[in-house]
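User: Could you go from structure to sequence for me? I need the amino acid at each position, not a summary. Structure tokens:
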């Protein structure tokens, strides 16, 4: 089990809503972590439903048959 701290910042308005454009995450108490910087937020854009479809299951490889007695 791990605890993380997140800090949000660089708030900007996008289509009348305020969004954080920087997110810092680090393990609790650690001096440093990962910084995520959001360059662009778009609202109300069309997204093809196929992007949310589950991928087809992969065909399972047949187990190699071993000769009897080995």
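Assistant: Here is the amino acid at each position, in order:
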């Amino acid at each position: 089990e791990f605890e993380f701290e997140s800090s949000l910042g660089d708030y900007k308005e996008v289509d009348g809503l305020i969004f954080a454009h920087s997110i810092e995450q680090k393990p609790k108490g650690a001096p440093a972590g990962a910084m995520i910087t959001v360059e662009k937020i778009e609202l109300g854009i069309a997204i093809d439903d196929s992007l949310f479809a589950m991928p087809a299951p992969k065909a399972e490889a047949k187990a190699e048959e071993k000769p009897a007695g080995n």
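One structural detail worth keeping in mind: The chain is about 0% helix and 35% strand.
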